Amino acid sequence: MNDTPFTDFCNPPDSTDLGQAHSERVIPSNACGVIVLDKPEGMTSSAVVQWVRKRLHIKKTGHCGTLDPFATGVLLVCINQATRISDQFLDQDKEYLFTLHLGVETDTLDRTGTVTRVYDGAACSVEELREAMNRFRGTFVQKVPRYAAVKIQGKRLYQLSRQGIAFEPPSREVHVRSIELISYEWPHAVMKVSCSKGTYVRRLASDIGRILQCGAHVSTLRRTASGSFSVEQALTLDRLERHAMDPARCAAFVSMAEALEHLPAVTMGDEAMLERLKNGCLDSAWIAEHLQVFGGCGTPVRILTPRRLLAALWWPDRDEEKERRLRVFHF
Q: Containing H/E element for 256?
């Protein structure tokens, strides 16, 4: 199984390749990489992954970062070997564009839930709204919504909530890098937020409404970026199925090596050393040399072949006696 760069798949094939009248190219079933999708409204993230696996005849698929069914936007789908690097995307910041509906609270903190309170007071001013927003810049502790996929004692919170079982939702530390007011006309405010992993925009919206004492919920939610991947390069499912031959399609298919460009890299050019690496072996001299360069970096290091294929991930800072330091891929 080769970590073939997805950009290779954007070259028009011979008409005999697919027996079709038009020039299209189906993704090889053994391809490895990340597809940047624009998740449609109404589908779960798992359903999108299953759709990709069945329609493209891919053996293994997985996603990085769940989006609620009513939400849209960037969803990273890893295929085949790339499912083994999905953990490297989870810690990256996310960016969302969302609509805050002030004056109405729901049990799910979004428009899909049951209304629990309606405010009948005066509209808040834009100055009051900005002041409330500013309280959620930086690092703070956020309570997980009662309708969330987080588990307590083996059960997901939304399951417990639907069964009417009493429980105390957990809290976690999150970080909001920036929050911006795009437009405001009571009762709707459009905002953009850049935040750490694990941040619930629904809870953020509800907490802003609580400070304003009018309540609020999220009526629209769109993930516009996940790490370095943006919605501008994302493909809709319809376009993915049609395999449109255009620049946007090329940008939406990313090889494993390219998808991990946020990690440091070293190219291994010695063929004999690459053969040993396939068996999970790194020369002690190579390790000693590269520990001087990458020791203390705090992240895994990409080991690339001369063809820029991802051969392995190497963790220079791990204790070799306690943790695995090497993750090898087929190349």
A: helix 256-259
Chain centroid to CA 308: 24
Task: Give helix 126-134 / helix 201-212 axis angle, nearest 10°.
Answer: 130
The DSSP result for 32-82, as a single string, is -EEEEEEEPTT--HHHHHHHHHHHTT-S-EEEES---TT-EEEEEEEEGGG
Q: What is the pLDDT of residues 11-52, one digit of tens each?
A: 223 323 323 333 344 566 678 999 999 999 999 999 999 999
CB-based contacts of 111: which residues, under 8 Å, 6+ apart?
Answer: 70, 101, 217, 218, 219, 220
- Taking every pair of Cα atoms in the chain, the longest distance, rounded to a whole number of angstroms, is 75
Structural domains in the chain plus CATH codes: 6-92+228-259 (3.30.70), 94-226 (3.30.2350.10), 265-328 (no CATH)
- The sign of the dihedral angle between the CA atoms of 216, 219, 224, 225 is positive
Catalytic residues: 68
CA distance 179 to 185: 18
* pTM greater than 0.70 (yes/no): yes
The candidate with the shortest Cα–Cα distance to 93, out of 226, 201, 3, 251, is 226
pLDDT above 90 coverage of the chain, percent:
79
Query: What tokens were used for 295?
Result: 């020791």
Span 213-268, pLDDT tens digits: 999 999 999 999 999 999 999 999 988 877 544 445 556 789 999 999 999 999 99
Give dist(CA 322, CA 320) in Å, integer: 6
| 1, HSE (Cβ side, Cα atoms, 13 Å) | 17
87 alpha carbon, distance to own chain's centre: 10
